[in-house]
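Students often ask why inverse folding is considered easier than folding. One informal answer: many sequences map to the same fold, so there is more than one right answer. In these notes we will look at a single instance of the problem. The structure comes first.
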């Protein structure tokens, strides 16, 4: 009976689209039912200082924002910021400071910072990802601290991108893979300052001293990094118990 019911429903739907003369009815008006501009939307960012305030990225270059939890959306001016795949927006513990990965005319991503709650966006003093950034994570406890990655390297900054600390070197990556490999992917970061857990497809990098040094943990029970890779990572802490989710 299910196929018959389906055919009847399809016939009724088709019949309702006909005019009295039997000709197809052409819609005369269209109404918007959400954002997207025909592309996919992803990487929703919710303001920790105001849960009604959100950004949503679209792969058609549009960055959308709502300040009433999705009842109304506005498109950010393309003269100020455009986005694409892998773009993201990052609120901080400082309400006025927001980071983003902005795309240029070649669809390469680079980090920008707004100091006026998203009204204007400016490039960072130093962009370590000269061939384009891929992912970024900002500390929820310090507006100046973030990790950013390109296809082969990881960088860590404590001063809103003025400098990058890589072990004992300044403005160098704290971790990298050879250019002839299949690359590096930042799966996520869990911030528990002074502990910082940076997860990649190559393993888990751990700092216990606020990012001064990172050590690679490539041997984890349940995960064989020789044959398996992590593509998404998050963490949570309650009391003295820390849990990771991959």
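Output (designed amino acids):
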């Amino acid at each position: 009976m299910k196929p018959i019911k389906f055919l009847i429903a399809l016939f009724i739907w088709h019949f309702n689209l006909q005019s009295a003369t039997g000709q197809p009815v052409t819609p005369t008006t269209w109404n918007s039912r959400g954002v997207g501009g025909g592309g996919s939307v992803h990487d929703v960012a919710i303001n920790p200082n105001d849960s009604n305030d959100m950004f949503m990225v679209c792969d058609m270059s549009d960055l959308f924002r709502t300040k009433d939890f999705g009842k109304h959306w506005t498109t950010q001016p393309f003269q100020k910021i455009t986005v694409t795949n892998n773009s993201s927006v990052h609120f901080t513990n400082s309400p006025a400071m927001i980071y983003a990965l902005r795309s240029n005319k070649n669809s390469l991503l680079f980090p920008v910072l707004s100091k006026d709650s998203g009204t204007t966006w400016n490039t960072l003093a130093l962009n370590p990802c000269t061939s384009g950034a891929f992912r970024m994570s900002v500390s929820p406890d310090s507006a100046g601290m973030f990790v950013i990655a390109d296809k082969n390297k990881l960088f860590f900054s404590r001063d809103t991108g003025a400098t990058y600390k890589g072990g004992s070197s300044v403005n160098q990556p704290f971790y990298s893979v050879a250019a002839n490999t299949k690359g590096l992917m930042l799966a996520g970061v869990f911030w528990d300052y002074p502990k910082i857990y940076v997860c990649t497809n190559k393993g888990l990098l751990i700092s216990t001293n606020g990012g001064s040094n990172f050590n690679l943990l490539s041997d984890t029970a349940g995960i064989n990094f020789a044959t398996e890779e992590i593509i998404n990572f998050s963490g949570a802490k309650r009391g003295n118990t820390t849990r990771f989710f991959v």
